[in-house]
Specification:
Layout (H helix, E strand, L loop, with lengths): L14 H37 L1 H5 L10 H30 L13 H27 L2 H8 L5
Length: 152
């Protein structure tokens, strides 16, 4: 089966065009993730640290008060993560435009059963990928540079 069958929009694109589309996807994905993060993380922070502060005070794991420096560090770390999601999304965009994935545009091509099954396959693949990349981040050469903050 011809893999470009799955990407009718991108079938005739040359390598520079596919690279350009993928590079344009990175800031678009990053911006969308940033807005999503700001909306939901911001709303959660305001809810639990401002509106419900007294109620949540006795449920805190740490009795030490957070500092604005800590909050700033965590937000910056989150933006770094958003950037990484953008890079991964750009890689996925390149895979799609190059015909390397089994991405398809119409449910009728494989049917509803595969649509539902592919969701569970996707969860399994994502969890496997996430587990092994997280294990890799615990390697001594990577841990201090890119992952330590996650455990503070």
């Amino acid at each position: 089966m011809n893999p470009t069958h799955f990407q009718p929009v991108f079938r005739d694109l040359l390598l520079p065009d596919r690279l350009w589309l993928s590079l344009l996807a990175i800031p678009r994905i990053s911006l969308r993730q940033t807005l999503f993060y700001a909306l939901f993380a911001g709303a959660t922070w305001v809810t639990f640290h401002v509106l419900l502060r007294q109620l949540m005070e006795r449920r805190r794991l740490s009795r030490e008060p957070y500092t604005w420096q800590q909050l700033r560090r965590e937000v910056l770390c989150s933006f770094r993560s958003v950037g990484m999601f953008g890079l991964v999304g750009g890689g996925m965009a390149f895979a799609v435009t190059s015909g390397w994935t089994r991405f398809y545009w119409s449910i009728e091509e494989f049917g509803w059963v595969w649509l539902v099954a592919s969701f569970f396959v996707m969860v399994l693949v994502h969890d496997t990928y996430f587990y092994w990349t997280h294990r890799l981040l615990h390697h001594p050469r990577l841990f201090r540079r890119v992952h330590r903050l996650h455990h503070l």
